Amino acid sequence: MDAGTVNQIISDIEDKILNNVNLGFDPDVLAVLSDPDADESEIELLKSKVGDEILGRLFSIANSAYYGHLKRGTVDTFYKVVSRLGMDFARVLIIFLSFAALSKDKEVRIICAKSFATSVIGGRMLAKEFGLRDDDARKVEIGGLLLEIGKIIIALYRSLYKDEYEQAQIGEDFISQYQSQLGMKFMEKFGLPEFLKDVISMTCLTLETELISLSGVVIVAYSIVDLSFRRFDNKLVLLSPMPDSEGTIVHTMGATIEEIFKAVGLGGYIEIKRPPAPKQKLS
Q: What is the pTM of this model?
């Protein structure tokens, strides 16, 4: 495939998916959430400018144990949603959830589920194990969501414009080679934070002087998720203690992760297995 053909295909994908698709929210939402000086009243007014499905997901996410509902109280206003999630993450979530809702195509759903799983594993589990600061953990969380945004865009093009996709003869080599280029166009289109360039353009595990870089943490998380999805028929499968009816175990990481997957509508892509009960010693 020559350069001219590649550019034509990328331009058509960009035009149809990034420029003309109806994402279900007013562009003012992203503008306000990009303004660090936006006040409470401005943010609260955005509630009426986001579609009901996405709005419901955002409230469910903010009220989940994953984001501290048990300790921090119930979120009952959009301003509180944004305050709990952070403006950058709320903005990225709105875009991500909107793209995920554009098609019920199996391939689109799987890539979105892998992206969300990468966000959770990297931004919560690995971030805690590596002792990342809260702001760095949030960057990993956002990076996980958007690591494969180029693949999501191409999958949406395939789902929504099947004839054009087949005519372009897009194969795995094209997707592998150019998905990051579409990811960069996505980032520019929505004015997303600069640190995402390192994540979206990443081709291998990257290191700093003595530590793994933040984009490296994202790729480690993705590798864990990818292995699970390959091994367990497109699911993130975890072995974790879970709350029991006797109240012996009340809160666990496994239960928290299962809840957040359900909150974003991806409950079918997570499975928590309970560890075997310890064997009783014979007296």
A: 0.92
